[in-house]
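Could you help me review a protein record that somebody else here produced? This is what I was given.
***
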Amino acid sequence: MNQHATSTPIVEVENLGKRYGSLAAVDDVSFDICRGETFALLGPNGAGKSTTIEILEGYRDRTSGTVRVLGVDPQKADLAWKARLGIVLQSSAEAAHVTVREQVEQFAAYYDRPRNVDEVIAAVGLTEKAKTRIGKLSGGQRRRVDVALGVIGRPQLLFLDEPTTGFDPEARRQFWQLIRSLKADGTTILLTTHYLDEAAQLADRVAVIAAGRLVEIGPVDTIGGADARTPVVRWRDESGLHEKRTSEPAAFAARLHAATDGEPRDLEILRPTLEDIYLGLVGASRVPSTALIPGETAHV
């Protein structure tokens, strides 16, 4: 876990439920997020993760259960509590005709103790674009503006909703470095993403939600359990393609080599990725695309 993370929970969710008539959008979900931790909430289409996030942000009321964010029930929170949050939505509505600096200055004025505007612009890598109108920026640069606006008020908890959707690979990796720098400063981050490699790179822990229920939660390197992480050795011979799941893939490959007249064809050792494990966890619980929960977006 991040060296700045502590065991003190900054988010506490217990038996959370949200219903729309007979539809359970969120069904008995419980988890905590520790101070300084980066926590990824993952789920397929209509899983209930957006509903859960909106409840934590105070934008949607729950039907049942208890929730405390920064020690406060979001359903009863005031503006002072909201000022302690940073929220970077999947889509934003920056003023295209103002400069980066003007936009960040405007948001800084909303807070009693904002971060230094120039320092924030530098932190998100936009110093050279500070005098550029937002409408002239690339998509990746606009997302950096979004993050600047999300952190200018010194949030204790930062929500990142699908932060790199539409990015090219280089822009995504540059953005990851920005998130790592915020994490290194001790910011608590709640991330939703449909890029499983992104969750693996950035999160301390992940929770997988499917059909409104929490199906797995744990550190990135242990989620799914040992069986789900067992490597597979795959090779080909005259009779076709073969594979063997084993906890000792190198030893098995060595024995296979010794028993084969020459190098085994197409020999490879496959170690399950977070995406492999995730797909295994939610495969039996996937919600049909025609049954999306109100407010949920159609992302993996």
